[in-house]
Amino acid sequence: MTDAVGRVQSGSPWEESFGFARAVAVGDRVLVSGTTSFKGTVLYGEGDPYEQAKVAFTSAVEAIAEFGLGIGSVIRTRMYLTHVRDVDAVGRAHKELFDSVRPVSTLLVVEGFVDPRILVEVELEAFRGA
């Protein structure tokens, strides 16, 4: 375990304009900020909450991989949706990725996101301790 702070950028245009990192590691935790299915300027899974959730969680897991961690290290997830109708689709995507790990999880329905085509935004927290 280290006390140094490490940061990962993903290249999201919002990281630069808002001044944040995709992931920050400090001590035994790695926190991944809100992640959508945007990769650069391309939105993957437009109109498909299941696909957006899978892409967003995959991007979040890629961020913790920069610190040598994988899905087995994930201890918390958060899912933000714009429509309650998408709960089952996003839940299915979450189960496919995290069923063997079973992190604590929160799902919220929100009014909207910075881009109206975004249906899902996710966060995760990973443990890198002994």
Automatic annotation (TrEMBL):
Listed transmembrane segments: none
Q: Which domain of life is it from?
A: Bacteria
Name under which the protein is recorded: RidA family protein
What organism does the record attribute this protein to? Streptomyces capoamus
